[in-house]
Amino acid sequence: MSRLVVISNRVAVPKARGAAGAQGGLAGALNSALKQNGGIWFGWSGQETDTFTGNINVQRSEGVTTATIDLEQADVEEYYNGYANSTLWPLFHYRIDLTEYEQEFGRGYERVNERFAQSVLPLIEPEDTVWVHDYHLMPLGERLRSRGVKNRIGFFLHIPWPPTRLFVSLPFHQRLVRAMLHYDLIGFQTTEWLESFLHYCERELGATVDHEDCVVELDGRKTVAKAYPIGVDYDHFVAQGQTIAAKTAYRRLCDSSRTRTAMIGVDRLDYSKGLPERMDGIGRFFDTYPDRVKDLLFIQIAPPSREDIGSYQKIRTMLEQKTGQINGARSDVDLVPIRYVNRGYSMAELFGFYRAAKIGLVTPLRDGMNLVAKEYVAAQDPEDPGVLVLSRFAGAALQMGEALLVNPYSPDDVAHNIRLALDMSLAERKARWEQLIVTVRDDNVLRWTDNFITDLEGTTEPAVG
Ligand code: F6P
């Protein structure tokens, strides 16, 4: 296997490792992939500088070499907060109502992709395999090709691909996808997102699509596009369960929930995660089954995310109001139904919390995959497993049909399934979990990396030209 050059917006620089599991699956997954394969991980340092220098900061720790650049304040504003997270993110999560189309955002996005290409170029050696990640860097492959890079270059999208009718509202949509077709291999989380992409290529670009072999051909260049559902680093995650931190976290939650069943949600504070809608479902549960208030304790861990963006500030305020209303209406001097926490925890602590919680509530309105659902299952006690309540709109639902699948927009459906989970017999919990754990254990992140890299290296010829 050739050396891997991984490129993503955010890089889990060594000092940041072990931070919140809910901060997004990408960083953890790439860390595991690089540890296994060796190579370099290139991206933004997360720091701002007055003037872009292109200076690369190289660090090596725990078998992973990271190379990062700083960006200018305007880059962060227009590329990261702007085009990536105020244009592409909402649009790709079907939130056209929140999507902003600003000219400067598009310019910032182009500029930063240029900066990435220019900076990473000297690090790429002729035999390397290059793997670009996520919506921040969709045109990067083309930028590298225009600088003469002939290596195999793959791209993986960690978020959904929207239906064509939504996607065409993006100005210059054709330019973006034409640029993507300079990759040799494009990976999606599920067949649903893959099919939307292929549909777009056929309908809007007039590309020839071979649906059997998943090849898109345009202007004489061929790109393979396939689904590769991402998984958790199963062995590493399960080993966390043996740590003192995990055991302490487990005890803390068991002891403090006393006779109540703990139900947990762990999400970045993002509107795609459906947190206010989740609170509506919990409120409906308490309204419908008032005598069960004493039976349930809900813990929502929600580390703030992308805090400079207005839509994120609004969702936080809305969530705080709803949580406050439910707690105000349903609390007693010795009972508070919801514990709402704005901070992240280490993997080990999350393992302990997941294991102590007998219900995992994962109800995004739209999600590329959702690794919290898989982590929750991985952390369960085989002799007394908890129940996963999962949104049918998470990519993970396609692999995890033995969970209780819900419509996150329906408070009644969420409430009903919380009750089913609370009252589920041990035999049924075990039967469901025994099915779920097979997918979580076997379709893990190492298999995901192997499958993608093997296919990338097997593509017939680099999509140069
Ligand atoms: O998985 C989607 C993703 O946007 C990743 O690319 C990212 O690292 C993660 O969510 C967290 O988002 P951010 O890097 O904006 O904090």
Question: How does the overall form come out from the CA principal axes?
Answer: globular
As a percent range, the share of strand residues is 15-25%
Class of secondary structure makeup: alpha/beta
Roughly what percent helix?
A: 40-55%
The CATH architecture of the largest domain can be named as 3-Layer(aba) Sandwich
Number of domains: 2
Strand order of the largest sheet: 3-4-2-1-5-6-7-10-9-8
Distance between the termini: 25 Å
Radius of gyration: 22 Å
CATH topology title of the largest domain: Rossmann fold
CATH superfamily of the largest domain: Glycogen Phosphorylase B
Organism: Croceibacterium mercuriale
GO biological process, one term: trehalose biosynthetic process
Protein name: Alpha,alpha-trehalose-phosphate synthase
Family: Belongs to the glycosyltransferase 20 family.
Overview of the structural elements:
Helix 13 (371-378) packs across helix 15 (426-442). This protein has 16 helices and 16 strands. It has helices at residues 25-37, 73-92, 103-120, 140-146, 164-167, 173-180, 191-205, 234-240, 244-257, 275-288, 310-330, 347-356, 371-378, 411-423, 426-442, 445-458; strands at 4-10, 39-49, 57-61, 64-72, 129-133, 153-156, 185-188, 208-210, 215-218, 221-227, 261-266, 296-301, 338-341, 359-362, 387-391, 404-406. The chain folds into two domains: 4-231 and 446-457, Glycogen Phosphorylase B (Rossmann fold, 3-Layer(aba) Sandwich); 234-442, Glycogen Phosphorylase B (Rossmann fold), CATH 3.40.50. The protein is globular, with a radius of gyration of 22 Å. Mean pLDDT is 94; it is low at 16-22. It is an alpha/beta fold. Helix content is 44%, strand content 19%. It has a ten-stranded mixed β-sheet, sandwiched between helices. A six-stranded parallel β-sheet has the order 13-12-11-14-15-16, sandwiched between helices. The structure holds 6-O-phosphono-beta-D-fructofuranose. Belongs to the glycosyltransferase 20 family. This is Alpha,alpha-trehalose-phosphate synthase. It comes from Croceibacterium mercuriale.
